[in-house]
Specification:
The structure is a single chain. By secondary structure, this protein is an alpha/beta fold. The chain is about 50% helix and about 15% strand. The protein contains 14 helices and twelve strands. The strands form two sheets. A nine-stranded mixed β-sheet has the order 1-2-6-5-4-3-7-8-9, with helices on both faces. Helix 12 packs across helix 14.
Amino acid sequence: MENPVDILQLINSDGIGTITFYKYLKKFGTAENALKNLNPKKRTYSKSQAEDEIAKAKKMNIKIIPFDSFDYPQTLLNIPDAPPILYVLGNEKLLNHRPNIAIVGARNASINGRKIASRIAYDLTQNDVLTVSGMARGIDTSAHKGAMYAKNQHGPTIAVLGTGVDVIYPSENTEIYEEIARNGAIISEFPIGTPAQASNFPRRNRIISGICEGTLVVEATIKSGSLITAGTALEQGKDVFAVPGSPLDPRSAGPNQLIRDGAILTETADDILNFLAMNVHFQTQKRQFEIFALDNKENNVDIPKPEKSAKKATLKSNSKAKCSDIFTLIDYQGIDIDELLRASGLEQGEFFAQLMNLEFEGRIIRQTGNRVAKIK
């Protein structure tokens, strides 16, 4: 593991951003070696400054978690500009909790928008889905409050700040900040004491989406930061959910546009929970196959190729026969997945296995709003 002192020195030196940090690491092998090869004309963050930062964090019960730590959020490592260091106040184990969803939206949110964000966050938390937001006014605050009210008012949530982890912004969220620190986690990539600066918040947004498996947008104008977060989530290969709204309200323009572009229409937490359930089932099947393949490889067992395996051909044939049971219930206009599940009379696991096979075979397509339809 890298020495946190070396990481702090390198990332805080002049001309070193997150991308450059990893380029130097790749080129020189370690942060220590990279420091030795920095341009001597540029200001280098001193070793004593780094050690003082670590001592200050320890005194304030703030944990400094480097990118190579077991506690660092593993999903965040998948983005090219993952912060080399995270400051965490609270329960660092939550950083790798799965499943999790980011909830973002307008600062000047409507009453109904706030209620929706709060309710969805509450229901997700009750179902052990961790919510992540940015502790801004409006939708962010409502999402945190909804999550914290769950689990007998001890619901966890993560707040990602665009300031130092010790700086409360906005100041009216002091009570929320303290509650999140007790039952959840507050995180930031910025050094202790960093004040609110406009340029920090877009950088903060990539962490919000990067930590999570999906991002929900509740009210956002077309040019808002929430739409930037949704765009970042898409670039990171994450799922995007959006709550539709009135075309007469500019705050609905963002979510409505996202839905037109393929985001998952979301009215309640069930829309997210059902989507996550399908993904979990797929990932479980995929992982089971990977383990099967690995076990056979380690035991020198050849996995038969499809064209040479009569048994595999029979399984595929049987799979198609089973799929026809629910295929006949689907039309070209689309049907709600929950309704299809009830009509099929199948167990949930078998149902989603058949649904996945139909999708893999190109016979159906998934639509927004938790629906599927036959492909013409």
